[in-house]
Specification:
- The structure is a homodimer.
- The longest helix of chain A is centred in the C-terminal third of the chain and has 31 residues, at 241-271.
- The mean pLDDT of chain A is 94.
- Chain A has helices at 2-16, 24-34, 41-52, 59-80, 96-100, 102-121, 127-141, 146-155, 163-188, 193-220, 223-226, 232-235, 241-271, 278-283, and strands spanning 89-90, 93-94.
- Helices cover 73% and strands 1% of the residues of chain A.
- The first copy, chain A, starts with a helix and ends with a helix.
- Chain A is mostly helical.
- In chain A, helix 3 runs antiparallel to helix 4 and helix 10 (193-220) runs antiparallel to helix 13 (241-271).
- A two-stranded antiparallel ribbon of chain A has the order 1-2.
- Chain A has one domain (2-286): Farnesyl Diphosphate Synthase.
Amino acid sequence: MIHDYQKQINQYLSDHVENECAEPTLATSTIYSLMAGGKRLRPALTLAICDAFQQSINQDVLRASCAVELLHTYSLIHDDLPAMDNDDLRRGLPTNHRRFGAGMATLAGDGLLTLAFQWLSDNNLATTTRLSLVRELATAAGPAGMVAGQAMDIHNEGHHLALPDLQLLHEKKTGALIRYAVLAGGIITNQAPETKHLLARFGEYYGLAFQIYDDLMDVVGSEAQMGKAVHKDQVEAKNTYPGLLGLAETKHQLAIALVKARKLEEELNRQTNGDFTVLEEFLAYFK
Amino acid sequence: MIHDYQKQINQYLSDHVENECAEPTLATSTIYSLMAGGKRLRPALTLAICDAFQQSINQDVLRASCAVELLHTYSLIHDDLPAMDNDDLRRGLPTNHRRFGAGMATLAGDGLLTLAFQWLSDNNLATTTRLSLVRELATAAGPAGMVAGQAMDIHNEGHHLALPDLQLLHEKKTGALIRYAVLAGGIITNQAPETKHLLARFGEYYGLAFQIYDDLMDVVGSEAQMGKAVHKDQVEAKNTYPGLLGLAETKHQLAIALVKARKLEEELNRQTNGDFTVLEEFLAYFK
């Protein structure tokens, strides 16, 4: 299933982004990062929840679901900038600013962030659905969410964070957007508040597992496998789970997050009319 | 009247932005640029149109109207970055990145851009009103609007643009957001499509006059008067009206834009039940 979602998402993005850019270099730079082979995890999560509730994946659902991928791509481009993480490699290719310069990379990011809100607002889903998606995404990605997480990250480089602070950093930097992606499926399919709450909590634990796994891979993965530089966290004195807890305890924390996510999946299966077996495939990502 | 609007806007921003930022340095950096003494022209235009239609300026109208100032401030912060215009001074103070570093400045901009969409979506105006504001602002500010204008600007430094291309650049870089600000007043007060069309056209000519005036001031103004470096356009081989047309013809173009704006003001007075004399004060800005 994930593979099907990825195909639909890639097709939609490749068909619809280029002609949203009114300047040729901006278009090239935007497409360069957007079509660089991302896993499309976030929009795939939204589509999976839609599927679980038997919502057909039409063009409007795709447009609304892909908005989070536009926003995620902006966050990677800005995160890689010389003034931020100063990364040369992303998904096995030179980073956007290495290829187009930091000015154009900044603009490509700005454009993608703004376009995400355009796509959430200009589809044909119900007015309240679209508005709810805008509000949730803005809250997840803004200065109380993802941007605050980034600020904590660059502000605390070289400072040793305690576990609760590290958790808060990750919750904001990575968790908020993944939580949004799962919740968005509940908003698009117009679920009851309790169901949306369960979805959001699943998203929180899934996002936590994702970040712990990412930290882990920076230690035990290879550059070829990850498509980006590894062992960078340690070199840059980044705050990470392995750095704080060691490898064994980090793996244990990952296992706990996955158990909690799986419990929420069971609760969703029990308490709603959806079929969430598709989430198993997403949980298998961490095997 | 403009002075009253500025006071209301400053009060709203100073009361409501800081606690939207969940990281202290991000909050300081965001407030630093937002409260650096901007003229609040864009939200003031929105409030003026609301006033023209006897819409009371309550907290929800203020929140929705101030969103464009958040977005405008982000565009200034990113525009000043070393990778873009590399400016040291803005409104008489060190630019955001000179004070907080380019990383934090990038994040403050990202946060303000995202917060603009949060404020448009989380107020208590009608659902369709909020959604319409989100869509119009995203379109005006995104990769087919303001961001495209910025890309044209940095991409064409040192290249001589013909007048139609320069007009397109300015229409996108500065005009789109001012057009939005005027149109937003029509959306908030739920005007007929023809009225919104007249408002948008007024905004286009007002925005054009604004940009020509700004180019002119870079040549004839002083640093003390402008609060930023002057004569920079020429040094950086920026494409400007005076550079392309000379001073006399630039002043002539400014006069033409103002005549057209004034005609639209008259049409609005004639064809709607609004009282647009307040716009005279905005047009007097260029005296």
